[in-house]
Amino acid sequence: MLTIDFDKLSIRPGDRILDIGCGEGRHTIEACRIKDTCCVGADFIFDNLIETRKKLEFHQELNDLSCRTIDLSCMDVTRLPFKDDSFDLVICSEVLEHILDDRKAVSELIRILKPGKTLAVSIPRFWPEKICWRLSHEYSNSPMGHIRIYKKTGLIKAIESFGAIFRFSHYAHSLHAPFWWLKCLKGLERKDSTSVNLYHRLLVWDLMDHPPLTRFIDRLFNPILGKSLVLYFKKT
Question: Is the full-model pTM beyond 0.90?
Answer without folding.
Answer: yes
